[in-house]
């Protein structure tokens, strides 16, 4: 596991699970600078940000997971979007355009979980139905 910083931001339980797994080796303060191989991945070049050291590591594959980028570019000129790209709504999931609702992870909010997405969806659905009924 290659981490660009000196700490993980995941939940405590996930970090604990990771750290006690003897099959996982965590490389802190490290970036992948190159991926190479013939027909398939065989090597990565690692860069240690702390001491400037570069080294090659043999590997059969890589899985990239860095941050989140909400797919909201389609709406950027019409809906209010937060500085991190999430759609801003009020508590009834209403956006700045009457009749347009946003629900789930795409919305600007604190907690992104299945349960909160389902709750958002329920509210948005009811509010949309009310909006149409009162039109
Ligand atoms: C690695 C990972 C682990 C997670 N683990 C948990 C967990 O253990 N428990 C938990 O509760 N939550 C977990 N979550 C969070 C959870 O997955 C989300 O909160 C939840 O899926 C949000 O649901 P959603 O419907 O808002 O968005 P999504 O599930 O992301 O669904 C959005 C859908 O919209 C589609 N879409 C995107 N753009 C367009 C477009 N332009 N047109 C049409 N369709 C489009 C996408 O393809 C996708 O199918 C995890 C998330 C990740 C990334």
Automatic annotation (TrEMBL):
<dbReference type="InterPro" id="IPR023753">
    <property type="entry name" value="FAD/NAD-binding_dom"/>
</dbReference>
<dbReference type="GO" id="GO:0004791">
    <property type="term" value="F:thioredoxin-disulfide reductase (NADPH) activity"/>
</dbReference>
<dbReference type="InterPro" id="IPR050097">
    <property type="entry name" value="Ferredoxin-NADP_redctase_2"/>
</dbReference>
<protein>
    <submittedName>
        <fullName>Thioredoxin-disulfide reductase</fullName>
        <ecNumber>1.8.1.9</ecNumber>
    </submittedName>
</protein>
<dbReference type="Pfam" id="PF07992">
    <property type="entry name" value="Pyr_redox_2"/>
</dbReference>
<keyword id="KW-0560">Oxidoreductase</keyword>
<keyword id="KW-0285">Flavoprotein</keyword>
<feature type="domain" description="FAD/NAD(P)-binding">
    <location>
        <begin position="15"/>
        <end position="121"/>
    </location>
</feature>
<dbReference type="InterPro" id="IPR036188">
    <property type="entry name" value="FAD/NAD-bd_sf"/>
</dbReference>
